[in-house]
Design a protein that fits this description.
about 110 residues; seven-stranded mixed beta sheet; about 0% helix; globular
Length: about 110
């Protein structure tokens, strides 16, 4: 069983920064896909950024603003979010795929005020 625990959400003004952390119960290098998704009220969950086969991948709407990184020693993946916009407001989930299974964290709220 895989466990993912997010932290680092909060309230920030537009233009500000936040860093999210996702601690996994096993090495992040064991996941072919691990990263961040978000879901705003009334919207479907969407891919934001993460590591796919150990390479960083970003949705177009965050390129140049967000950066993903991993710390193998801590089994943790990070999402540095800069130049945040009100439309970035959502619950951010850490998600990982291994074998035939998809695993999710509990989510962390990110709210960007204008």
């Amino acid at each position: 069983q895989v466990q993912l625990v997010e932290s680092g959400g909060g309230l920030v003004q537009a233009g500000g920064s936040l860093r999210l952390s996702c601690a996994a119960s096993k090495s992040i290098t064991s996941f072919p896909r691990i990263g961040w998704y978000r879901q705003a009220p009334g919207n479907q969950r969407e891919w934001v950024a993460g590591l796919i086969m150990h390479e960083a991948d970003y949705a177009d709407f965050v390129k140049g603003r967000f950066a993903v990184s991993g710390d193998d020693a801590k089994n943790t993946i990070y999402l540095q979010m800069n130049r945040l916009k009100p439309e970035d407001t959502a619950v951010y989930y850490c998600g990982a795929t291994i074998g035939a299974g998809d695993y999710w964290g509990q989510g962390t709220q990110v709210t960007v005020s204008s």
